[in-house]
Write a structure and sequence with these properties.
The chain is of the alpha/beta class. It has 9 helices and 9 strands.
Length: 214
């Protein structure tokens, strides 16, 4: 019987809405990191995007994430709203306590690495679990010169060791590259600003907690 911890990637975001680019990045990261599954952490409210006028409801965003993650080992969840956390550092701390039989790695795009130093207690995030950064077109330069990248320094791991992340000591970061995907939630909202109305009457079950958002 295999009793090893479940290797779980965490990809946070607004998912406003979720799209095929999210799915492509996740499937790539799952293979590169040797993950058992990935959780899409649909944020109830990103402090860095406070006041956004085109932010759909949490239910609509979770519904779009569940739809986009069908027939995969991606699990869409709004667990942050149930944990009552506002900042990523607190969410990760509570997740580790709630799920001691899982090994977590935080996954984010290069655009987030460029701004990572603006996140609340970002160094404590890095000390909790390894971080995998997915390259995004147009953000390589900003990511490489980011204050957070300078702080990681020699703690950046070679790409060919990505699947060994469970044995790393923190902080640790690995950069991953795959075929760029040009799709974005911004472009989708521009093309269909009323996309969330498709889920107005939906009853959505959280794929991790199994709770229902009506």
């Amino acid at each position: 019987m295999n009793n090893r911890p479940v290797r779980t990637g965490l990809l946070g975001g607004s998912f406003n809405p979720a799209h095929r680019g999210h799915r492509a990045i996740s499937l790539f990261a799952m293979e590169a990191l040797g993950l058992d599954e990935i959780w899409w952490m649909v944020s109830p409210g990103n402090p860095l995007k406070a006041g956004a006028s085109d932010m759909a409801s949490l239910k609509a965003r979770l519904a779009s994430a569940r739809k986009m993650s069908r027939r995969s080992r991606i699990r869409a969840t709004a667990i942050e709203s149930q944990l009552g956390t506002r900042y990523t550092v607190d969410t990760l701390s509570k997740l580790r306590k709630r799920h001691p039989r899982r090994e977590f790695i935080w996954i984010m795009g290069a655009d987030n690495l460029a701004n990572f130093h603006r996140w609340h207690r970002w160094r404590d995030i890095a000390r909790q679990m390894p971080i995998a950064v997915i390259a995004r077109p147009g953000y390589d330069g900003a990511a490489i010169t980011a204050p957070a990248m300078a702080w990681f320094g020699h703690r950046v791991r070679p790409r060919d060791q990505a699947s060994d992340w469970t044995r790393w000591s923190m902080p640790a970061l690995v950069q991953l590259r795959f075929r760029p995907d040009p799709r974005s939630a911004t472009a989708l909202r521009r093309g269909d600003p009323d996309w969330s109305l498709d889920y107005a009457d939906a009853i959505v079950r959280d794929a991790v907690t199994r709770q229902v958002l009506a």
